[in-house]
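Re: the request from the purification team.
They wanted to know what the chain is likely to look like in 3D before they choose a buffer screen. I agreed to run a prediction and write the result into the notebook, where they can find it.
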Amino acid sequence: MRAIWSGSISFGLVNIPVKLFSGSQSDSLDLDMLRKGDLCPIKYLRVCKRDNKEVPHEEIVKGYEYSDGEYVVLSDKDFENASLEKTHLIDIVDFVQESEIDTRYFEKPYYLEPDKSGAKAYALLREALKRSGKVGVASYVLRNRGAMGIVKPLDDLLILNQIRYSEEVRAASDLKLPSQDNLREQEVTLALSLIDQLTTTFDPSKYHDEYIDDLKKIIDDKAHGLAPKPEGKAPQPTKVTDMMALLKESLKQKRKEAA
């Protein structure tokens, strides 16, 4: 893996030099855009709005429009100088229980690796977090953007889990949601029994993107001149009158599988 950032974790007055690595990767299909008539690949160009001429990458700069048509050009050094300390620091500002953080806030994981000179301090922070059962709430700057994250231990590793700011999480107050007034206790009991039947220990390796597998099969069929067939049927909403019968049938199926 290649480090995408280097700096320090600030823990009180202790600075721990670290490198940051991405902890996730995309597993999507790489699809090209084509012209429908002759399947010619489409290329995206950076074009000047005034003269419609293509602009080479090395001639492109970033600018902020502070008034109509007037720009201030910002260099990489300007972004760094905006806060020289923050661009090189993961500053732990608070310690909290991870269970207090709404899951909607979690965004992306990163791995933290210490430099040789910071190995002992890294191990100290990791052990202190393990024993306290808490996580550190940290602020930092990554890719010219201020960010928040939580620092937490995982075995011998410290993870920085990027989280969203509160203004980035939408409120759900405008949604029309049902109340539980029309539920019968028997229905709830059956639903709880079904949950018990389906309960297991979480194993992430058990799950994978089955949609990508189905899509690859369609690609393979079409490459060999075969007409693709739809997988399964679109699900239909359950009728209220069928709820009890479907719950009972679901329980029967799970008991058969278990037997």
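For the purification team: Residues 243-258 form the longest helix (16 residues).
Please add any questions underneath this entry.
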